[in-house]
Amino acid sequence: MIPTTTHRGVVYARNGVAASSQPLAVSAALEILQAGGSAIDAGIAASAVLAVNEPGASHLGGDAFLIVHEAKTRTNTALNGSGEAPHRAAADQFPNGIDIHGYRAATVPGLVSTWFAAHEKYGKLPIPQLLARAISYAENGVAINARFARAVVAHKAAFPATKVFETMGISDSLSGGDVVIQKDLAWSLKQIAADGWAAFYEGEIAEKITAGTDGWFSAEDLKNHRTRILDPLSIKYRDLVIHGQPPPSQGMIFLEGLKLAEGFDLAKLTTAQLTHILVEAKKIGYADRYDILADPEVVDVAVDSIFANSHISKRRAEIDLTKANNNLTKPLPEGSDTTYFLVADADGNAVSWIQSVFHSFGSSFAVPGTGIVLNNRLTGFSLDPTSVNFIAPGKRPAHTLNAWIATNPDGSLKYVGGTPGGNIQVQSNLQLVVNLVDLGMNVQQACEAPRWQHLTTPGNPNIEEDYFGVLEIENRFDEQTLTELQALGHTVKALPAYGHGSAVQLLEVLPNGSYAVGSDPRVDGQAAGY
C-alpha cells in the first residue's frame, strides 16, 4: 500500500481558498477574495506576487496556462498564454543548437497578456488593486524565503558568468530573511497597472524589450501576441470528467495516461503493479506526443486520434504486466522551474493556474531597465526539419505547462490540481488523480503520498540508463516495491523521502459545498481559506 501519513492537515473553508508554493502569494490571493474579488482577480494578484517573490520559477517574461471553472454555467475554459517564436527565430540561427541562456532562447512572453485576457472575461476588481501587493513588495522590499535565496546562489554557482542578478538589481549572495528590493520591476508593474496590456506589448516596456534584445523581438512580435481562449481537452475517467490543457501543451499525455489506466482495476493491485502500469502508460503518452504535438495553428495535432478507443485499446494491449518496455524512451529537455497555484471563490468559481520561465531563471537574461526575466522556452522546439515541432518564426513550441480540473457528471466542480516540474508535471498529475479517485485519498494525503518520476537524460549513449530512462522513486515506498520494479526491468533510483521534483496543490469540493484544500510539504507553501 502507498503510505498516507501526512504532516499537514486538510484546510477546510466555505468562502474562498488559495494554495501555492509561496505563502505570500496565498496571502495576496485571500486579500483580494476578501475584498470581493473573483477567483481570477485573486489569481492575478498571486501571479504578480510570484514574479516578485519566486523569480527563478516564473516571471513577467514567462508564460501561463489556466483552466477556469465557472460555477453558474458549469463551463470550463482553457487560457493558453504561451508565446510565439520571434521573427528572427529560424533554424539557421542555431547551427550549434538552440541557446539555453541569453535573449535568443526566449519566446514572446505570454503571462501579462493572460492576466488581461482572464480579467476581461472573469475579473471584478480593477487591475491596479490586483497588482498593489506585488508592487509594494518590489518597491519597498520583501523578506525572501530560503528557496528564493537557494535558487539565486545555486544559479550563480552553476553559471558564474550570468549577469541576470546584476540587471535585476539584486545580490547574487542571499540568505533566507534577507530583504530584496527590485525597483525596475516595480516600475514595470506600475506601468502595467496604469496602462494595461499595451504597456507591456506596445508601450515603454515593449520598447525596452526590443532595444534590450538588439531587435531579437520586434515591435510587431510583441504587439501581435494574444492569449488564446479555448475549450479544454476533456475525457471521462471513472465517474468524473477531467479537463486538461489543449495543444501546444503536452497535457494530452496526462489525459492519455488516465485513459490507458482506466482499463485496469488499480485499487486491487500491489503498489509495484500499480506503479509499473502508470510508468508504462507515461512512456506511451510521451511516444505519441513525439509524433503529433506542436502548435495547432501551424500543424494538425490529431489529439482525437490519440484519444480514440481503438488507439487506446491498441496501446493498452502493449503494456506488458511482466516487464518494462524500454524501447519507447527518448531524451527530452528537462525544464523544472515553474510555479503552480489554485484559487476558488465564494461563488464556486475556480482557477487552476500554472506559470513558468522554463529553466531556473529562464534565459538568465533580464531586460535592462525593467527587472523582467525572460523565459528560455525556445528550447522546447526541435531543429529537426522532419519534426512537427520544428522551429519557425511565429510558431509556438510544444509546451510542458499543464493544469487540470475535474468535474462531476452534472458538471459541478469536484477537484482542482496541478504541480510544477517540467516533464514531471504530467506524470505527477496522473498519480494524483489515481490517488484521489482509485485509492480514495483525501487531498492532503494525495499531496504528500510518495511519488515516482520517470526521466530521460540526454548524456552518454553508452550508458544504458541514459537511453532507457531512470525510474526515480521516493524511498518511502517499501523495499519490496523497489525490488519488484527492478525485477520488471525498470532502472530504479531511490530518492530521499520527499525528494520528488513536484509541489502539488489540490482542492476538493465536498458534497456540502465546503472546500477541502491540500498543499505539498516538499516546498514551503500553504493552503489557506476563510
Short description:
With 530 residues, this protein is α+β, with helices and mostly antiparallel strands.
Report on the architecture of this protein.
The chain is of the alpha+beta class. It has one domain (1-530). The protein is built from 18 helices and 21 strands. A 7-stranded antiparallel sheet has the order 1-20-19-15-14-9-8. Helix 2 (39-53) packs antiparallel against helix 3 (111-122) and helix 11 (251-261) packs parallel to helix 15. The two termini are 34 Å apart. InterPro entries: GGT-like_enzyme, GGT_lsub, GGT_ssub_C, Ntn_hydrolases_N.
Strand order of the largest sheet: 1-20-19-15-14-9-8
How far is it from the N-terminal to the C-terminal residue, by CA? Answer: 34 Å
Proportion of β residues? 15-25%
* Major sheet: 7 strands, antiparallel
Name the overall outline. Answer: globular
Unreliable segments of 5+ consecutive residues: 458-467
Counting helices, strands and paired strands, the structural category is alpha+beta
Helix content: 25-40%
Whole-number total of structural domains: 1
Number of strands: 21
Radius of gyration: 22 Å
Number of helices: 18
What number is the mean pLDDT?
94
Pfam families: G_glu_transpept
InterPro entries: GGT-like_enzyme, GGT_lsub, GGT_ssub_C, Ntn_hydrolases_N
What are the defining features of this structure?
530 residues; alpha+beta; seven-stranded antiparallel β-sheet; 18 helices; 35% helix; globular; Ntn_hydrolases_N; GGT_lsub; GGT-like_enzyme
Task: Give a topology summary.
Blueprint: E1 11-13, E2 17-20, H1 23-34, H2 39-53, E3 63-70, E4 75-81, H3 111-122, H4 127-140, E5 142-143, H5 146-158, H6 164-168, E6 179-180, H7 183-195, H8 197-201, H9 204-212, H10 219-223, E7 228-230, E8 233-237, E9 240-244, H11 251-261, H12 271-292, H13 303-307, H14 309-317, E10 337-344, E11 350-358, E12 366-367, E13 372-373, E14 404-407, E15 413-418, H15 424-438, H16 443-448, E16 452-455, H17 464-468, E17 470-474, H18 479-487, E18 492-495, E19 505-509, E20 515-519, E21 526-529
Parallel strand pairs: 17-18
Antiparallel strand pairs: 1-20, 2-10, 2-21, 3-4, 3-11, 4-7, 5-6, 8-9, 9-14, 10-11, 12-13, 14-15, 15-19, 16-17, 19-20
Helix pairs in contact: 1-2, 2-3, 2-4, 4-7, 11-12, 11-14, 11-15, 12-18
